[in-house]
Amino acid sequence: MTAGQTTLDKARVGGRYRVRGIQLETAVEKRLEALGMTHGALIEVLNGKGKGTVIVRVRGARFALGSGIAAGIAVEEAAA
Question: Could you tell me the end-to-end alpha-carbon distance of the chain, in angstroms, rounded to an integer?
Answer without folding.
Answer: 22
